[in-house]
Specification:
14% strand, 11 helices, 38% helix, 5-stranded parallel β-sheet, single chain, 8 strands
């Protein structure tokens, strides 16, 4: 029966998963949790292959007002929330995938320059009447848009914030420049409605003093609140195995892939489980 289901092995685009009918374990209640808490800047750190990019895609697809994603959310858990219609496709979203690199990138300046230039071009195209120059700092341009467009706010969705930290060309000085960039972009600005960030590394260890004290940071080790939304819970693994006719193999899967236990919850790596089921 395993071959009768389309399993999203290696697919990280939430909209593609939903529109093309891939098997999907509903994690959309995370959106409701974010709306209830509504912290200005929230960072979720998880190991690799734990579905962070799919979740970031989901957040962006839900809030982005230039899209109509009613069809892909209407049958999911978030659609039962009283906040559903109020927020679905009602916000301006700035989505940054920090894992995208310039061609032949060998310096931090090349890396961050590409991100900044692309964002500036998008903003200048969308808000042509704002009084700023292209050479202005990114946050100055956003502040100007906020002032001239009736308090225009943005939801920032930032995937893999720490990707560049794993590159050999990054120095400690570059790391501090990058932290300053994030602080200047997100801290104490009226244009920030909400910021959702993902990564592997905790950001607090790279900042000093109050530089990034606006972050609400959730790790698997320090916080239990959101653990069910990243990775597969034991019940979700059992359901997947049942749906693929492999329920008798649960003990084997549990033995091989039950790699994380936090609080009273066992969490499985989605990549490992999906690959096993797809064999």
């Amino acid at each position: 029966m395993a071959n009768t289901l389309k399993l999203p092995v290696g697919i990280e685009n939430f909209e593609e998963i939903r529109k093309l009918g891939f098997y999907y374990i509903d994690k959309t209640r995370l959106i409701e949790q974010l709306l209830q808490g509504w912290g200005k800047v929230t960072l979720f750190t998880r190991p690799r292959r734990f579905g962070k990019t799919v979740m970031a895609n989901m957040i962006g697809a839900f809030f982005e007002k230039d899209e109509d994603t009613k069809e892909i959310f209407d049958q999911l858990k978030i659609s039962k929330s009283p906040e559903y219609e109020k927020h679905r496709n009602k916000h301006d979203v700035i989505y940054i995938d920090f894992s995208k690199m310039p061609e032949d990138c060998n310096s931090y300046d090349q890396y961050i320059g590409r991100i900044i230039n692309r964002l500036k071009k998008d903003l200048i195209r969308e808000y042509p009447d704002a009084d700023y120059e292209e050479e202005d700092a990114l946050w100055d341009i956003l502040d100007c848009i906020f002032d001239m467009y009736d308090g225009q706010k943005f939801i920032f969705v930032m995937d893999e914030w720490d990707y560049v930290f794993h590159k050999t060309f990054i120095t400690r000085e570059d790391q501090q420049k990058y932290i300053s960039f994030l602080s200047n972009l997100l801290k104490d600005h009226g244009y920030v409605e909400l910021s959702y960030m993902t990564g592997i590394l905790p950001i607090a260890k790279y900042s000093s003093g109050s530089e990034l004290n606006m972050f609400l940071e959730y790790t698997m080790a320090s916080e239990e609140k959101f653990n069910e939304y990243f990775g597969f819970t034991e019940e979700e693994v059992k359901k997947l195995l049942q749906d693929t006719g492999l329920e008798e193999r649960f003990e084997l899967v549990q033995k091989w892939y039950d790699g994380y236990h936090f609080g009273d919850m066992d969490i499985y790596c989605p990549w490992d489980v999906l690959n096993y089921v797809n064999k």
